[in-house]
């Protein structure tokens, strides 16, 4: 049985957040995205979102990670590529002597925003893992293969799971919600695939709140509360997550907050660019 250190687990929450993982449906039986009337993934092409992650504990805050998400169109294929990167920084490096890099790429079909493949490169100090998840909607399955590029003798880790037509991965989920009409009182659930397993994530849009941002100034946001903590959930520990999306057609995620037994992680938008 593998043993993960507390800080990396907290940072995984932040990655889930800022890319992090949020909502993919607007009712208990989510529609395919092409039927929502909000357009396709074309609206994200050329977008770059940059975030700063901080860990607060005992009234002290530490910078722990930078997160960047870039969206491009794959030429002549009708496909969308979302690339995310989380890199350790600040106190995490200086005091805890822990470094990590997570690179995450989601390949989707542009029109219906259906996830096709997820590729990850995960470095934690000396530990390195490469993985690929391929989604086969004809066979209704996702196949996940993880390898250790530093050890050619280590057998690949393989997991296969059944999927529904509207499944998403961790990064595409945050973009999927931005295509949908949301309002206070919206409730539902969605399926998200991570490392070959599929999790059901209930969510609620609970209120409108004003949030200060470095990019847009003070803006009105929708407060979204996905339920990802607990036994059988995406994160099997106690905690709470809140995400704030701008209350406009872009639904830009400007802030996310995760409370765990290790402290509170705050993810804030530092810059927004659109080519």
Quickly describe the structure.
This protein has 275 residues and is mostly beta strands. Helix content is 9%, strand content 53%.
Q: By helix and strand content, what is the structural category?
A: mainly beta
Strand and helix order:
HEEEHEEEEEEHEEEEEE
Shape descriptor reads: globular
Give the helix proportion (percent range).
Answer: under 10%
Uncertain regions spanning at least 5 consecutive residues = 1-39
Distance between the termini: 45 Å
Summarize the main sheet.
15 strands, mixed
Spatial strand sequence of the major β-sheet: 8-7-6-5-4-3-2-1-15-14-13-12-11-10-9
Return the average pLDDT rounded to an integer.
80
Strand fraction: over 45%
The radius of gyration is: 18 Å
- How many strand elements? 15
Provide a count of the helices: 3
Q: What would your notes on this structure say?
A:
The protein is mainly beta and 275 residues long. Helix content is 9%, strand content 53%. The chain has three helices and 15 strands. It has helices at residues 6-18, 91-94, 172-178; strands spanning 47-57, 60-74, 79-88, 100-109, 114-124, 127-136, 141-147, 157-162, 168-169, 187-194, 197-213, 217-226, 239-246, 253-260, 263-274. A 15-stranded mixed beta sheet has the order 8-7-6-5-4-3-2-1-15-14-13-12-11-10-9. The longest helix has 13 residues, at 6-18. The protein is globular and about 50 Å long. The relative contact order is 0.20. The model is unreliable at 1-39 (pLDDT under 50).
């Amino acid at each position: 049985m593998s043993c993960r250190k507390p800080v990396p687990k907290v940072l995984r929450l932040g990655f889930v957040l800022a890319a992090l993982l949020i909502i993919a449906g607007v009712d208990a039986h989510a529609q395919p995205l092409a039927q929502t009337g909000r357009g396709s993934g074309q609206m994200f092409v050329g977008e770059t979102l940059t975030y700063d992650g901080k860990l607060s504990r005992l009234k002290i805050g530490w910078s722990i990670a930078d997160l960047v998400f870039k969206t491009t169109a794959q030429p002549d294929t009708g496909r969308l590529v979302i690339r995310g990167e989380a890199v350790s920084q600040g106190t995490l490096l200086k005091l805890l002597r822990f470094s990590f890099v997570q690179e995450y790429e989601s390949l989707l079909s542009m029109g219906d925003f259906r996830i096709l493949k997820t590729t990850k490169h995960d470095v934690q100090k000396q530990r390195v893992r490469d993985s690929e998840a391929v989604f086969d909607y004809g066979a209704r399955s996702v196949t996940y293969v993880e390898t250790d590029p530093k050890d050619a003798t280590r057998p690949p880790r393989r997991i296969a799971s059944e999927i529904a037509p509207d499944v998403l991965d961790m990064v595409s989920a945050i973009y999927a919600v931005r295509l949908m009409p949301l309002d206070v009182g919206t409730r539902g659930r969605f399926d998200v695939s991570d490392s070959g397993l599929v999790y059901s994530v209930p969510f609620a849009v609970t209120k409108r709140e004003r949030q200060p941002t470095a990019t847009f100034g003070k803006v009105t946001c929708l407060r979204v509360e996905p339920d990802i903590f607990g036994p059988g959930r995406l994160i099997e520990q106690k905690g709470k997550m809140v995400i704030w999306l701008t209350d406009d057609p872009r639904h830009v995620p400007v802030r996310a907050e995760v409370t765990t037994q290790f402290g509170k992680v705050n993810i804030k938008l530092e810059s927004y660019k659109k080519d």
